[in-house]
Fold this protein.
Amino acid sequence: MDKDSSKRITERIIVTDALPYANGPLHIGHFGGVHLPADIYTRFLKRKGKDVIHICGTDENGVPITIAAEKQGISPQEIVDHYHNLMEITFKNLGVEFDNFSGTSRKVHHELAQDFFLNLYEKGYIEPIITEEFYCPKCERYLPDRYVEGTCPYCGYEKARGDSCESCGSWLEPEQLINPQCKICGSIPEKRKTKHWYLSLNKFQKKLEGWLNKKKWKKTVIRYLQGWMKEGLKPRPITRDLKWGIKVPLEEAKDKVLYVWFDAPLGYISSTIEWANKIGKPDKWKEYWQGKNTKLIHFLGKDNIVFHGIIWPATLMGYGEYILPSEIPANEYVNLEGQKISTSNNWAVWLHEYIEDFDPDFLRYYLSVIIPETKDSDFKWEEFQERVNTELINILANFVHRTLKFIQQYLDGRIPEPKILRKEDENMLKKTNELVDQIDEALTNFQFRRAVQYFIQIAAVGNRYYDQMKPWLTRKEDKEQMKTTMHLCAHIVHLLGNIGELFIPFGASRILNMLNLERKDWDSLKEIQIPKDHQIGEVNPLYKKVEDKEIVKEIRRLKMSYASIEEFKNLGLKIGLIEEIEEIEGADKLYKLTVDTGEKRTLVAGLKGHYTPQELKGKRIVVITNLQPITIRGVRSEGMLLAATEGENITLISPDQVVSPGSPVS
């Protein structure tokens, strides 16, 4: 080893995902805004040979955990264990690869958080302040912000929490709520004095300003942070009156715990410590968190920007020794069918339920296309179907299958050697090579939507090339050209299998298995490396198309979740008379029904194959009339009929006597 090389420091990279709360399952908002882009980016860096670790875990302390536990009548630890395990399995099923997935209720995390508290306290960055907080006389406890509910002063939403309004997104303090109530018992709380410990953010104002001024982050991220800095930083409480959490390591605060926003980011460090212990190198975590040549990249949603861009860096600055965030590629929100995702109203697509019905690649692909990089995006089931079927299947999967099937059928399953490259061949290779470079550039700059578009364009280039070169003709008229064509098509398939690992890892693995080829290094992607006379594996269709009936089922599930159990009686169940039945263009399973429910309304129903138009006309059914209308296949559906399902069979729910249309069902 020469002297210069011995002095070189290898660049290390830590990629983190905002820790999801272990008080409920994961939904598409979490995945599309945080965990999917983080996974794609980490896979990309590892393919490029970078020294990178992907770190995450569950946020297991704080009020959301205790509320969930109290509602279910079990201990916080039981809540934590259940949802941690569910999330870990869900991530695995969706192809998310973590180097370590920890949890903040573990001993290693408690010890680290208490060490940080004492360090900052001894340096004078933490001080006690007497304050007034809501206290519930009936429950005999102080009420942290999420234990207080009331009317939002900005939008009038009547169930706003003491920390934020789910309806308009405003940040709140409990004192701002109109008509505040105890979330547990519903009684009116009173103000009482209590002592809490505050992090003196004001002491970090100038240092943070100097640090942030050097950052060239997303405009949305910088805008959030500048707004806080201009207002002037103020001390923030970092303790809470709770029994569940990390105990404050002071005798006078023995009945208090650390506020979750203070301890949660420390979970990145404690998870890395846990990782180092697991690989048998207990001090290795220091190379990443205290090394001079480490980049720290935080993937998170916009609601976490302030914590990671101001409070967390201030904590690290105060302690010393640790690196600061290098990049915060925060994303906006993923909405659902035009509305903000609401876990309390069950207006969400839950990931653990999704993977029971669909290929995980479908969600990864569609969410990659709509990652909310600069503004909120909207998940729509009908668009999900369209994107998957027309792009992922009709373009990519079709190209893979037609190429490998041709080789299997006409070339004995062996990829032929290329002969003379013609202009058309060179043009195709030039285009695919450009797309590889564009994918590299896009991912380097956290532009995932562009990257996945370039990826699918490679398959589109392959299809155009295949059609242009007509191997089904040249196999008889110009076998040398046919061999070149099929070798280059196999090369494109190999490209798709390699790059696809970032976006669609399950399908990409199947592609490489069918090719019977190993994964290539990222820097050699553009090189044609298929061995001479290479034998491919068994060829099968890559994916199965998403059927209309599957989408109708998901939309129906959403529409039902739009109303809570308490509101079910207000759904407007009425007797309907089917008057007209029409075909819907391009839909294999759907009818457009005109139904008299006391007034004419249109329903879209997946009844094809179960009922003929003749069987439906004049039939009386039960209709939910008070659901939110939704558009399916371009037709506005203004309700939902009730039907029983058993396996593949569907049976309409009908009255056993003649009842007038519009009659209420109760």
